[in-house]
Amino acid sequence: MTQKERKHYRPMNSMQAPRFTGVRTFMRLPCLETLEDIDVAVVGIPTDSAVSYRSGARFGPEAIRSASILLRDFNPALDVNVTDVLSMVDYGDAPVVPGYHEETLERVQAYLEPIYRAGVVPLILGGDHSLTMAELRALAKVRGPVSVIHIDAHGDVLDTYYGVKHFHGTVFRRAVEEGLVDPATSVQIGMRGSVHPSDVGAAQKLGYTVVTWDKLADMTPEELGALVRAKVQDRPVAVSFDIDFLDPAYAPGTGTPEPGGPSSYQAFRYLRALGPLNYCSFDCVEVAPHYDPSGATSITASVVCFELLSLLALRRQSERLAAAAGPGAQEIHADEKAIAL
Q1: How far apart are CA 95 and CA 282, in angstroms?
Q2: Which domains does the chain have, with CATH numbers?
Q3: Which of 170, 164, 161, 167 is CA-nearest to residue 50?
Q4: What are the pLDDT digits (tens) for 282-339?
Q5: CA-to-CA distance for 78 and 76, rounded, in angstroms?
């Protein structure tokens, strides 16, 4: 009996049907609620019930999906064909309850847990950053405490907002308190701007390594990549990317814009430099499209997602090549591709 052939899900062929046709799924992937024969499940979490300033991120998943129709297969900077390596589907949206944040977290956690248990990596489209609590709770149920690469203009380590514990600015404190994240092997990147007095040094006290934007602006992407890899090593790692990491000149469509940050090109170079780590979850959050009529923020967010998928593709490609080489073969590394060209 021959082994069952593995299905491989990939985008529609744009040479057979125009990109602007069909249902708006991420990257024009098939819309399927299946966890069999896939590497990546794209999941929308349309919630913004825990924001402190401008709402609207509940429309982020829809906008990112619409913008993603321009994404193609090959990442020339990393020399990897994402759709050849990764079998991917658009898994739809997680259930949410507008106005009931903690109920939303419970439902999203229950929705994500089977994805992690199946060994599938979710690419989560937000939604405000509070959803990352549900993501990390579900992931920790399966993998235990994980490392986090948190890319953001804000540390999100406040203790309370308006007297409550769960807000988009408290996520990475709660994650440590609940034992979801190992802060000693986690890195926060890009923090800048004015802060609450209680926020000064708070992330470092929790155990995180913090690379502020002032420090990052003086580093090369390769230096950042080396720092992150030294911290994370080969532990399971989740990447959480807040679109307000970018200067609002490049991403105005977000709830808490923070001037003085990097360009989209710089952001892509920093991501590429991370290399093929042991990725187990991705999110891209805080896209609020109605503050950006041009659509530039959603387009940029879709490319952020593509760069994240490219990193996973590098990892899987390296693993498969090593497995094909057989026992005793020299270990194959793809670190040399983790450079910004």
Answers
A1: 18
A2: 26-337 (3.40.800.10)
A3: 167
A4: 999 999 999 999 999 999 999 999 999 999 999 999 898 888 887 755 444 445 444 4
A5: 5
